[in-house]
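Task: sequence design from structure.
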């Protein structure tokens, strides 16, 4: 198992994209509360939610075959998910 599998690297890319959306929004608008959720919020929500089935697929398919190689990738996926969610939680969006 390695990051060459799409189910291994796609969640990492989606988390990076969600993090980039938050950073771009903060850079463009600042840390202000808005009356309505904008496009950035919806895009972030989609990126974060849609990667969960991919992570589950990777976990089920790879943990049964080679647990030693699958666990570090799953930990990286979890860390990337938390890193993308942290700014939203910390900034109170």
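Answer:
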């Amino acid at each position: 198992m390695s990051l060459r599998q799409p189910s291994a690297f796609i969640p990492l890319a989606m988390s990076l994209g969600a993090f980039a959306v938050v950073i771009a929004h903060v850079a463009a608008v600042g840390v202000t509360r808005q009356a309505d959720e904008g496009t950035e919020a919806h895009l972030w929500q989609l990126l974060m939610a849609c990667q969960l089935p991919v992570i589950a697929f990777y976990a089920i398919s790879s943990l049964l075959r080679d647990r030693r190689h699958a666990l570090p990738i799953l930990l990286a996926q979890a860390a990337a998910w938390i890193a993308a969610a942290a700014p939203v939680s910390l900034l109170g969006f």
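The chain has one domain: 6-91.
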